[in-house]
């Protein structure tokens, strides 16, 4: 999937999870950082590629991306596996507690948002021809649907003109359907 499709999937996933598991409290800073965090989380699995947008956000990111690309065996390996999910979760859990001020931001909500973005990326990639190596280092890729020929080719017309708009249509429908719950979440910010 392309970065813009991953961004849309991450935002739709964040809204969906928030509607089904609304936070007990929420401030504006946590809300905004969580939205950005979900987007960043959606970029993390592709950090094994030097051309990832995440590297563009960091100082000297292009050079760092080229170095780290050599560390990873190839694209869609460790960062697209269960081991990668657990490792990133543990790393972020450790870093965010030390980086974020708990009086200003709820690090648990931010961590959840980043991981929602991360997992949405893996779900979206499972719809592509390549699938996802959840059991890396085993060379078995999983995809939806199981028949590879029925999956999406990344960056082609079906992704651009069907999948990407479908995510936004879903999001509009979902927000309309769950507007009562989502309104309560927004009211938490104002209280």
Automatic annotation (TrEMBL):
InterPro entries: YdjM, YdjM-like. The keyword Transmembrane helix applies. This is Membrane protein containing DUF457, transmembrane. The chain crosses the membrane at residues 157-175. It comes from Candidatus Woesebacteria bacterium GW2011_GWA1_39_21b. Keywords: Membrane, Transmembrane, Transmembrane helix. It holds the Pfam family YdjM. It comes from the Bacteria.
